[in-house]
Amino acid sequence: MTAEFENLVDIFDYAIKSYGSRELFGTKEAGSWTWSTYDQFGKDVDRARGGLAALGLSRGDHVAIISDNRIEWAVLAYGCFGLGAAFVPMYEAQHEKDWEFIVHDCDAKVLVVANKAILEKCKRLFDVVPSLQKIVCLEDVAGEGSKVTTYKSLLASTDRVTSTKPKREDTACIIYTSGTTGNPKGVVLSHYNIASNVNAVHSIFPMNEADRSLSFLPWAHVFGQVCELHCLFSLGASMGLCESTNKIIENLAEVRPTVLMSVPRIFNKIYQAVQKQISEQPAPIQSMVKSALAATAKEREGKRLSIKEHLVLTLADKLVFSKVRARFGGRLRYAFSGGAAISRDVAEFIDSLGVTVYEGYGLSETSPIATTNCPGERRIGSVGRAIPGVRIAIDPKVTTSERKDRVEGEILVYGSNVMQGYLKRPEENAAVFAADGGFRTGDQGYLDPHGYLYITGRIKEQYKLENGKYVVPSPLEEKLKLSPYILNAFVFGDNKPCNVALLVANVEAVKKFAAEQGISATGDALLENAKVKELFKKELGKYGGEFKGFEEIKEFALITEDFTTENEMLTPSLKVKRRKVLEKYEKTLMGLYNKKKSAQASASAN
User: In the 3-class helix/strand/coil scheme, how is 461-481 assigned residue by residue?
Assistant: First the structure.
C-alpha cells in the first residue's frame, strides 16, 4: 500500500525514491521495445524543472502543450508541478482555432509543441497571445530565433531548482472540455483533486509495481492522465506507449499488459472482431462457444455449474477463449472502461473471455472518477458505487423520467475530486454548482438500493417526440454500433413523430455480404441495393431489440463517411458533436420523414 498523497509532487518524490531501478516507460523503435527506468525519469524531470525555471516560469504560471503521449510529455508535466506551475494539455488532432483559443484563454506563458509542423502553425501565436513568451519544440529545430527553443536545450540547462511543495488547492492542471456545443471550457483541477483520486484507486484496486499497461488513451484527456499516468506511476508500474491507435492489437501482444485503461469504442472493436472470428468457425465450435457463454452467464448469477457445463467451459477456454486472450498478450487480468457507457452485451462477452471489465463513471470536472465497480463490488450494467471520499446524489427535478419504480434524475457529485471551477467562467460555474456545493453533471441516472449508479443518458441530448415521449439517443446508438455492419450511428427525432437514424456503413463488411449474395453493385449503388437495405433493417431489429416501442428506428439512411475528429463530427475524446452532424445531414434526415409520409399516404390510398 502506498502513502496518502497530498499533491502530485508527493507522488513524484515517492515513486522515484521507491521504484528507482524499475522499468517505467516503454517505446518501440526500429521494431523493438526499449524501457526506461524511474531513475532516468526522475533525472529528466529534475533537469526539466531547472530548464523551465530558466525560461522564467514560476508558481502560478501556465504551460500549454500540444502533443500525443510520449515520455517528454510526462517529464514536462512533472517538471511544471515541481515549480507550482499548471500544465494545460491539448491534442495534436485538434484544430488550430482550438489551440489558439486555449493558449489565449489560459494565458499560457510557455507553449510546448510536438514537432516542427505544429511549430510552424503556432509561431503566429506570439502576435495574438500577449502572455506567450516562449515555444519549446520536442523535435530538434534550428534557426528559429530567441523565442523558440528545444526540449534538448531545456534539459541541457545548468540551472537546478529544488521542487516546491504545492498546496492542496494549487492548480495542477487545466483540462479543456471537448466543446461539443461551443468553445472549450477550462476545467481547473487542483493538486488534491487529482491526488485524492489516485488515493481512492489505491484503496480499492489491488494493483502494484508488477503491473503493466499499454498506453493509448491520450493523457490530454483526464481519464488517461489520472487513471493511467499518475495512478500507475505512483504504484511503480510500467506503461508501454502505443505506436498509434491502429497498432493497438499488435502492441498488446508485444507489451503483454496486465491492466488496460480503455473506452467503450475499443471494447466494441474487440467484441466485433472476436464475434466475427467465432462466426467463421464450424457449427460445432459455434455451438460450444454459445454453451460456454451461457455457462459464464450462469456463474455471474452465482449459480453452480453442472459437470457438463464445466467441461464445455474448459474446452471452449482451451480452444477459443485462451487464444483470444493471447492476442492481448496473455497476461491481461482486468480492464477499466470509462469515458462513456459500455454496452452490457460487450462487458459480459469480454468478461466471459476471462478478462474482468470494471466500468466506472466520472467527468473532467470530477478528476475524473466519481464511481466505479471494483473487486468484490461489481454489477455489470452499473458504473459502480461512489469511491472513497465521494458522495452521489440524484436530483429528480430537472429531468423528465416517467419511471415510477425508482428515483431518476440529474447526477450530483460531492467530494474532494470536484474541480475548482471553470477558468474565467463565473456564469458557467454558477450553473453547475448546487447551493450546497454539489457538482451538477448534466447526466441522468439512478441509484439502486445498494448504492450502485446506473446512467440513463445525457440530459442535454434528450429530446421529445411528437407523442410526448422522451428519448435519450446515445444508449440507443451504442447498441446499434455493436452490429458488424454499422461503424457509427446517429439517432434523431426531436419534435418528430418517430425516430430515424443515420447509419455509417462498414463498407468492407457490406462488400463481403454483397459478394456472398451475388450483388455486383458498387459505391452508392451498393448501399441503395434492396438486399443491402434489408440487411440493415434486420440489423436494426437484432441490435435494437431492447428498444421501447416509441424508440424504434422507423427509417434510416446509409452513409459511408464516419464521424471523426478530422471532419469535426467527433471531439478529441471521441464524443459525437451532435450539432455538427445535424448541420451536415439535416436534409437527409428530413428526407427520411418525407419518405415515411409518402409510404403512409400510399398505404392509405391502397
Answer: HCEECCCCCEECHHHHHHHHC
